[in-house]
Amino acid sequence: MQYMNTLVWIGFCQAMFAAILMFNKNEQTVSDKILSAWLVLLAIEFLTAGMDYQFYKTPLLSGSHLLSNAAFYLYVRSLTRSGFRLKYVHLVHLVPFLLFKVLAYIIKAPFMVGDYLVYQENYLFRFSFAMVSLVSWLIYSSLSLTMVYHYRSNLQNETSRIEANENIRWLMFVTIIYAVYCFITYIISFTLIIKGDYESTLPGIFNYSILLVLLYALSFYGLRQKHIPEALQIPNEKKNSKKPLLDDRTRKEIGKQVLAYFQEKQAYLNPDLSMNILSSDMQIPKHQLTEVLNTELGKNFFRLVNSYRIEAVKKMLADTTLHYSIEAIGYDCGFSNKSSFYKIFKETVGETPSAYKKRISAL
């Protein structure tokens, strides 16, 4: 009990501290506002758990899953979907959390899961809470993971360089960890139900411990997350999705134009080259270029551009008359930073630039 009491008060302090930092973040975006509100609600969740120990000697039923499920969904959507705006209707997502939170205090339902299926007082409330929590997790987790996956897949069709804050790898990792955490929680709960262990405090300890870890992750990465340009986000409505696909002849013709564009203009040397620039220069709609690249040329925009950059780097590394550093060659060939240059080169060639240069020099 002492461990749980300490745990919830640490969570309250951390959540409030992180929320204050988020509220004071420069150029606060919609996603920052959602995360700020989420942190405040988490602080309230920890605070009420701490007060429960003072008044009831045990935490009452927690709706943290219902809160986090909806908050994850809204936060992911605000980061990955262009034109997302907060509306009053979005408060509907918090109704299950608030409803069960209030009812739990009215009927003073303890945070014990072993008796969910035992027919006794408040059976309908406890069973309803369990079912709503499960459905909420299945729906919101699926939507969140799908949105992050589609965004990351679409990202390589939009830009030739991907910054760390645009990649949102951290969000994919945290979302997966959260989904696994919920799954383990349900497994523990069902195990206790089957065993009939009505008094176990394990679910409460596990819930608030992982919730604290989640809180630290959101605080750290959320504060570092920068605004993602709308050009890199996925449109809420795909205007061209219903148009027919290009015929083979048109697709091949556009493919030849794209290759000629890269070979003649050497546009890949521009570190800021994007699909918008390519579409504007060639006067061809983005969705047509994306189709041609992925089907006719067999590469997304990111891989196509960087394949040209890698070939340019290889030529310069093989030129013994040049005395540029390897990093300077990378920048000269269109790469925006050293880490991405080395990573993409090794993934493409199978060895580092220095190892490639050494091997070529020895021939």
Strand content is under 5%
The coarse silhouette is elongated
Q: Could you tell me the CATH topology label of the largest domain.
A: Rhopdopsin 7-helix transmembrane proteins
Integer-rounded radius of gyration? 26 Å
Estimated structural class: mainly alpha
Distance between the termini: 70 Å
Low-pLDDT windows of residues: none
H/E element order: HHHHHHHHHHHHHHH
> How much helical structure, as a percent, in the residues?
55-70%
Task: Tell me the number of helical segments per DSSP (H or I, 4 or more residues long).
Answer: 15
Overall mean pLDDT stands at 85
> How many strands, which pairing sense, and closed or not: the largest β-sheet?
none
Which architecture of the largest domain would the CATH scheme give at its second level? Up-down Bundle
**The level-1 CATH class of the largest domain:** Mainly Alpha
> How many separate domains?
2
Question: How many β strands by DSSP?
Answer: 0
Task: Furnish the topology, listing elements before pairings.
Blueprint: H1 2-23, H2 30-55, H3 64-80, H4 95-107, H5 123-155, H6 164-167, H7 169-195, H8 202-224, H9 248-265, H10 275-282, H11 286-296, H12 301-318, H13 326-332, H14 338-349, H15 353-362
Keywords:
363 residues, mainly alpha, Rhopdopsin 7-helix transmembrane proteins, Arc Repressor Mutant, subunit A, 2 domains
Characterization of the model:
The structure is a single chain. The chain has 363 residues and is mainly α. The chain folds into two domains: 2-232, Rhopdopsin 7-helix transmembrane proteins, CATH 1.20.1070; 248-362, Homeodomain-like (Arc Repressor Mutant, subunit A, Orthogonal Bundle), CATH 1.10.10. Helix content is 69%, strand content 0%. It has 15 helices and no strands. It has helices at residues 2-23, 30-55, 64-80, 95-107, 123-155, 164-167, 169-195, 202-224, 248-265, 275-282, 286-296, 301-318, 326-332, 338-349, 353-362. Helix 2 (30-55) packs antiparallel against helix 3, helix 5 runs antiparallel to helix 7 and helix 9 (248-265) packs across helix 11. The longest helix has 33 residues, at 123-155. It is elongated, with a radius of gyration of 26 Å.
